[in-house]
Design goal:
Length: about 425
């Protein structure tokens, strides 16, 4: 009875220890002077080291005094030795551990539930849990349950994180699917094919029946974080091009009549990711910010009227030749005649100018290709419009005296690459 009372009293005292003083005197048995922490002790109970050890063993604790109580000696004024110690609450065994279960499978245990809960929150936060446009959750059922501590070995938070995020190799069951390849199976676990094959050297999907179960070594997270994010994007809308045939252009030639411009639209997309990899995407809504401008291209259908030979534009009297005149340069040949007489195209081509042109007065310019153009100036009126295709000998204007002129005539000019040349080599 006396031993039972002493053990019970020692158990109560141990739970509130603040200091231990080992009294060492010559010829005396070492003893522990124990004081309670919550209120001043009315008495000091001397308990031998052996009795303390026996008490803890009776409570189920295998006590290694050297490793569990880190004593540091300090000699006091009265000749005793004061010893530092690890608080008794750290020496006493825990009754329960917190165990993490993922879809019912035990992953590990810890003596710090709050740290484990925080670690799970950190994983979610790394996948955007704190972002305003994002929802994040674990796909699997996550449970933290309390279990008796007996026979359970706790894990560190680092070990937990490595397992949860796939940094620790583990064995998983796998059922063969149709079309499985080494690459597709590796990707299903988020692994590169080379790394997967290195730890599964004998795995060959072709050696299994469809639906057959096997076991694989993988570096794969035991939890799947599903992230749903809503983002807004802007994207260009390509403009369309339409072609319009015209007989005012040569066959095989094209000209852009209206430049196309891309449009722009905005769309809101819901993106689903599994452990950071996109698995689905759907457009919630979209709207056009700018309508694209259609590009119009003119496509010629007219066979080229250019013959390469030239006829007289007007059979009048030559009144002024090409070359020096009045102290300057006369850049063409003048053919005088009655006002209103018809002027014809000396060769086929496309009219590139048909309007008033300064000192030239009413003027027609025809492009014959290869950089060669002919000018017909001082006309009384014009019979063609810009862009028109004309044939050799077709009436394009009428003789007049517009612009700087001394009388009715046709000023005929030939230019090559924009520079006036002698017309006579081109005329019959």
């Amino acid at each position: 009875m006396e031993q039972t009372r002493r053990t019970g009293k020692a158990r109560g005292i141990l739970c509130g220890i603040l200091s231990l003083i080992l009294v060492l005197t010559l010829g005396m048995m070492p003893a522990l002077a124990v004081e309670t922490a919550e209120e001043p002790a009315e008495e000091t109970v001397e308990v031998s080291v052996e009795q303390l050890k026996e008490t803890l063993l009776a409570m189920g604790e295998e006590l290694d005094m050297a490793s569990r109580i880190g004593l540091s000696e300090t000699e006091t004024d009265n000749g005793t030795v004061a010893l530092g110690f690890t608080p008794v609450k750290e020496l006493l065994p825990l009754d329960e551990y917190s165990v993490l279960k993922v879809d019912g499978e035990i992953i590990g245990a810890t003596d710090d539930r709050k740290a484990l809960e925080l670690e799970l929150c950190v994983i979610l936060a790394e996948h955007g849990m704190l972002e305003s446009n994002t929802t994040t959750q674990f796909v699997e059922k996550i449970e933290i349950v309390e279990v008796p501590a007996s026979g359970v070995t706790p894990m560190s938070m680092e070990e937990f994180r490595d397992i949860l995020t796939g940094k620790t190799q583990r064995t998983v069951p796998y059922f063969i699917h149709e079309g499985d390849t080494l690459l597709s199976v590796a990707e299903s676990f988020g692994m590169e094919a080379e790394a997967f094959q290195e730890i599964n050297p004998d795995f060959d999907p072709d050696q299994f029946e469809l639906g057959e179960k096997t076991e694989l070594e993988v570096f794969s997270p035991v939890v799947t974080v599903k992230t749903i994010r809503v983002d807004t994007f802007e994207e260009e809308i390509d403009f369309d091009t339409v072609y319009e045939d015209t007989d005012r252009m040569y066959l095989g030639t094209e000209k852009i009549a209206t430049e196309g411009e891309n449009g722009k639209y905005e769309f809101q997309v819901e993106i689903t990711e599994m452990n950071g990899k996109e698995s689905a995407r759907r457009i919630l809504h979209s709207k056009v910010l700018k309508t694209p401008v259609i590009q119009r291209v003119l496509r010629g259908t007219q066979k080229s009227p250019v013959t390469g030979s030239y006829v007289m534009p007007f059979n009048g009297m030559m009144s002024s030749d090409y070359g020096s005149r009045w102290g300057g340069m006369h850049t063409g040949v003048d053919f005088a005649g009655p006002e209103g007489s018809p002027i014809v195209a000396s060769d086929g081509g496309q009219v590139v100018y048909a309007d008033w042109k300064g000192t030239y007065g009413n003027c027609v310019i025809i492009d014959h290709g290869n950089g060669l153009e002919t000018y017909y100036a001082h006309c009384s009126s014009l019979n063609v419009t810009e862009g028109q295709i004309v044939k050799q000998g077709e009436v394009i204007a009428y003789v007049g005296s517009t612009g700087r002129s001394t009388g009715p005539h046709c000023h005929y000019e030939v230019r090559v690459d924009g520079k006036p040349v002698n017309p006579w080599p081109y005329l019959p």
